[in-house]
Amino acid sequence: MVIVYHEDNKVVEIDCLGKSKASMQENIVKTLFEVAVDYQDCLIIWCHIQLKAKLNIKGFKEIFHHPKIMASYNPSVNCFLSELIGYVEGSPFLKINKKNTYPTWLMSGVVGGVQASVLNILKDEIQKDRNFDYFLHSFAKLAMQNGLFCYSEPNLVKNCLEVTQKNNSSLFNLFRFVKQHYKIQWSFFLFFNMIVYERKAPILPLLNSFFYRRRKLNPNLLEKIEVKSRNKIIELETIDVIIPTIGRKEYLYDVLKDLSIQTHLPANVIIVEQNSNPDSISELDYLFNEFWPFKIKHTFVHQVGACNARNLAIKEVGSEWTFLADDDIRFDENLLKSVLSNLKKYGANCLTTSCLKENERQDFKIIHQSGIFGSGNSVVKSQFLKLISFNKALEFGYGEDIDFGMQLRNLGIDIIYFPRLRILHLKAPIGGFRNKFIFPWELKGENPNPSPTVMHVKINHLTKQQLKRYKIILFLKLHKVNFFAVNRFTISWNLSVKWSKKI
Fold first, then answer.
1. Does the pTM of the predicted model rise above 0.85?
2. Strands, E assignment, 25-146
3. What are the Cα distances from residue 113, in Å, to 15, 66, 142, 156?
4. Cα dihedral across residues 27, 33, 37, 39: positive or negative
């Protein structure tokens, strides 16, 4: 391990494998790459000199448990790019929970680390900015989408206090960053939002950004780094499958058949069957008439709703891992075996698979930190499912998957997408909501937009700027540039906000 201490954007000391030496180099970034060349198998740490005594060195082995991890921590509430980046970025990686490990490309120069192998393999691809924080943000933004695992990690330090340092953020850096890491239209969109919401017209930062070219990264470079986690996250190798179902007898049968031929069999398959007719009985006779190589736990309820059904199923889970499945999917016999193998390899507590319709194009082909969570194609360590639940306020609406994924992230659980783990989603035509659910706003003849369930999720899990970004995008999607519709849109938006607080 090599630790580079810095202050005022200058290197002041380098601790190389326990041998400390002074350094007065002004370019921290250049120093990191030079050290990486000299110590190619080492973890490279950067740290503000004020935190030297606070470094949690004993925890580094667990934090950097495989070579494709980059982690940093900023005890301050202020982000280098400021909260204004939310006018451009809509992902869940901005609203960081600083109490737990949290996936984000918002890196900090206060304290952090990355393996020398990552720096070395990208040294000819990454521009070495003099501004250390700008470099870290750019590096993580480009590398995260190409397979580097980036986190805000409070365990890097012990009892960390806010560090006194110069604030080198500015609108010039913000517009430059947007120009270099997003499509050109987002620069104008940021400018527009600044006028609408901030009552500012930053013309000079916008014009200055056009002197910079967009940055890109070879997507295959990080694939050369072999991943093998030191974290032991699998002990029993047992897995339960939970499936909510309603009116899909034939489809569910095929799912059970796929499970029955798995090379790694599940311990329990937990089925929650729903039918709103109070006089109805189960139609799943094959659960009892046929032999299955696993235990089936079947619950039949007259209360319909996938959120309630999944919550009931989770209470029945007894295995180390839980596969949250849909009742209209198909997969090969090696799915569960491959799932456990990849969880072990990456030291992950949650993964989500590819889940596409037949002939649907697969856009993402690299294992990466996902901004989405699929409640019908994900595997989660069961102990964490006991701490959260599907929000029944979102029943029959939209957004329960997003909300559940955010609950996991706020617990410190990253969601990793594995594109080579494939599930076929049949999108059964008899799926969806069988009986039309009447929402309370419909009874009152009100027309909120977006759906209050969607608004509920947006308000809870986006930053203020991201919510405003969403509002503008929704308006443009509905009304193009017809600004005469602003009043009508505002009324429907406010209705959505009102009902989102009541559900």
1. yes
2. 43-48, 69-73, 102-103, 111-115
3. 14, 12, 17, 9
4. positive
